[in-house]
Amino acid sequence: MNKKYIISLTLAIIIFALINGPATFAADTTDTVTVTINISSVGTIVVNPTSVSWTEVNPGADTSKTNVIIKNKGSANVSNVYITSSAITDEATNPLPTANTSKYSAPGLVLVRNSTETDYYHVGRFEWNLSAVLSEETLDLESGTTNFSHGWYRNASGNEYIWKVENGTDGKCNDTGTIFIISEIPENDTDMSRDHTADPSDCGAITVGTTWGTFACVDGPLTGHCVATSVNCDRIYIYKNDYSTTFPACTNRDYLRAANLIPGSEFSISIFASIPYGMPAGNTTTGTLTISGTY
Known about the structure:
- By secondary structure, the protein is mainly beta.
- Helices cover about 5% and strands about 25% of the residues.
- Strands 1, 2, 3, 5, 6 and 14 form a 6-stranded antiparallel sheet that branches. It has a 4-stranded antiparallel sheet with strand order 7-13-12-11, with no helix packed on it. Strands 8-9-10 form a 3-stranded antiparallel sheet, with no helix packed on it.
């Protein structure tokens, strides 16, 4: 047998063995998938409950308190949360002469407290000009006053506090020189208090705005509140936590929550309605409390 045949036969046997013999290298049975997700920045808050109703409330009484939960259901931090009342549009005309409950805005009777405060404040409440000077009322108007309003700030306690606005520049009550005072002495069933010179509260000087001016009361029955005075001197608006563009700045103004509310978290506020004595019976105009924030 020649050498060439022997070598070929040997190679054939080796190749056959490699084809038919057992595998000797390891198999890789694991691999990975890389996942990347980008979430859009969305600012979303929801409130619960979405409606509140109090019925058959007596004049001179406060309703039960209701907690409102504010949740961040979006993907971005929400901060500087504030509340506004639809009373600013619901109560467009003076309801005092009408004896018609529907002329009053329901949100205008609501007070609110956030989780860090001990006191409740009006969400947004109108007090309107009285049609005539009261018996025994001492107005004490400044020389040159051409436009003024006066009325009562009332609450469920039965105490009523007389207030007065006198015009500033050009006969307007939202401009420089406008005066707002409210008495610290209440009138009630046993005591009369209608003298605007007697212990007026300190509400500072006006901050001028386009259609409203604002005052910040540091003592008296409206301590901690902002009081907005209308350009035409017919009413005042009492609030605390409203950062809408309706009113100019006020040093008493404060957010319901200034700190970040991170996605998936929540905080609560407490609200109730306070019904003054002298309210007519019936249904007030249904309105809204709007809670807003920035992100």
